[in-house]
Amino acid sequence: MQIIQCLLSRDVVTTENSSVASELHEKNRYGSLLADGRIRLSLLEAVYLLEKSRISVMDNRNHEVSLADLERKASAKEHDFWTRYAVFKDFRSRGYVIKTALKFGGDFRVYDRGVLPGQDHAKWVVFPVRESEKLTWQDFAAKNRVAHSTKKRLLIAVVDDEGDVSYWESRWLRP
Predict the structure, then answer these.
(1) Predicted TM-score (pTM) of this structure
(2) Mean pLDDT along residues 37-62
(3) What is the pLDDT of residue 94?
(4) How do the domains of the chain map onto residue ranges?
(5) Angle at the Cα of 149 from the Cα atoms of 29 and 84, rounded to 5 degrees
C-alpha cells in the first residue's frame, strides 16, 4: 500500500493531492475534501493513520514528524485526547466510520458498518468518558436527549486506565 504524504501546518494535517489520498477519503471517509483535491485530516485521524503507517507527515521545514511528536501536539491541542483517541481507534479498527458530532452536541457520530456518510444517517452519537469520571443523572439525561433529538442511539464509551473501551447503549422506548 502506498504511503500518503502529508503536511502539518500549525494544527492542520493535509494530504497531498493524489489518487491514493482521494481513495482514502472516498472509500473510508477519512478527513474532508478540500477544493484543491487534498484531504484535511483531523488530528485524531492523522495520529491513527500515522500509527497504521498509511501516511507520513512533514512539517513546514520539511522535517518528518514522528508519531510521538504528533501525539504530543494532538494531546496538547485537543481536550481529553487520549480518551477520545481510544474510542476513535477502537471504532476504526472494527471497520466503522467515525466522524465528529459537534453539530449534534456530541463527540462523535458513528455509522453502521458498510454505511458511508451521505448514504444514510449515523446510527449512534458517542460520548467518550474515562472510567474514573463521574457522570450525573442530569449529564446522562442531557446526553440521551441529544441522541434522541438527532434520531440516533446514545453510546457512552467508557475508557479504562489500560485504554480498553466498553460501550453502553441507551435509547428511548415507548411503553
Answers:
(1) 0.92
(2) 97
(3) 94
(4) 4-77, 81-170
(5) 45
Q: In which band, very low, low, confident or very high, does the pLDDT at 91 lie, cut at 50, 70 and 90?
A: very high
The cell numbers describing 135, all together, are 457522570
Residues in the chain: 175
CA nearest neighbour of 29 among 104, 100, 125, 82 = 100
**Percent of the chain predicted with pLDDT > 90:** 73
Q: CA-CA distance, 3 to 14, in Å (whole number)?
A: 14
Cβ-proximal residues to 28 (8 Å cutoff; 6+ apart), any chain:
97
- The H or E element that residue 55 is part of is strand 55-58
Residue 48 CA to residue 147 CA, distance in Å, equals 26
CA pair distance 46, 30, nearest whole angstrom? 9
- Does the CA dihedral 28-29-32-34 come out positive or negative? positive
Q: At the topology level of CATH, where does 81-170 sit?
A: Trna Endonuclease; Chain: A, domain 1 (3.40.1350)
Residues carrying an active site annotation: 111, 121, 152
Cell numbers for 108, please give them: 462523535
Q: How far apart are CA 156 and CA 135, in angstroms?
A: 10
Cell of 24: 482514502
Mention the CATH class of domain 4-77: alpha beta
Going by their DSSP bridges, the two strands 12-15 and 4-9 should be labelled as antiparallel
